[in-house]
# Entry
Amino acid sequence: MVKKECIFSEGDTVEEVLFSERDRTREQILGVLSRTRDILALPNVVHEILEVTSGKNSSASDLTNIIESDPALTSKILAVANSAYYGFVKKISSISHAVVILGFREIQNIALSMSVLQLFDRKGTVFNEQLWRHSFAVGVGTRMVAGHLGLKLDGKYFVAGLLHDVGKIFLSQYLPDMFGRVLSILEMQDNTYTYHSLEEWIFGLSHSDIGGRLLSSWLFPPEIVNAVSHHHQPSMSEHEPVFSACVHIADLLCSIKGITPLNDQFFLTLDADILPVVAGYREGFGSEDMHRLLAQLDTEIERQSSFVSAFKRT
Ligand SMILES: [Fe+2]
Ligand SMILES: [Fe+2]
# Structure
């Protein structure tokens, strides 16, 4: 539950309040993050899936056996595989069939995302519900942007988009007082500070950094960790910056559309340094492309709704 409080007392300057506890707050956040594997443990089956999918000599039957040992996960994966999104005419009735049709990597992505979703509340507060709505929309949007850039479509785009703000989700649910403090200042001030600058000032860490650390501690594939860590500044990404750029652009499109948990849609800015990288995939990428993607987003959210609702049932 995010609690908003008044933190200003007479005589304090905003800067004094913001900076006063920054180092201690940063240490506290890092302390909670270092215990993540105890307090926010992914089920064992997920670690087994990661081991098999990253191993060179693993077979489809190894993966099938692991998933089938978990009946709940089995039925959830089958629900997603049979969603209209994939458009298979014949029903996929077993995990072995799903692995053959969708591939190792896709099954890994589905299982990982579902397990993370289960660790967090998705209801309870308006903020929470809006944040998840935003997250699913950015998941869909990231895949759409990747398609627009001509990248080979892969489940990793949806996963990275879905989990891009997992740092914010973590802060709001595991450090609600600190997070409430940022929201309070955001509401009380006169647009001098953006949400992102407040994070840096108060926490000494950004939610993208926190999200990347979380996913890394769960042993997520490095490319997804990297895309999440750099989703606000993809040009700083040393590895596959175009992947971070897809998340970044989708995040921006959702903010412009008002699909955002915070009233900060005017504060999100495009990382202009990433444009030459993006233009390498789509010649002349610019405002015309942004308008087209913006117009396409609602249709895409509608088109992928069966896939998203199969996920939401988890
Ligand atoms: Fe973000
Ligand atoms: Fe976001």
Notes: Residues 164-165, 207-208, 231-232, 251 surround fe (ii) ion (ligand 1) (CB under 6 Å). Residues 126-148 form the longest helix (23 residues). The mean pLDDT is 85. The chain has two domains: 1-34+121-314, 38-119.
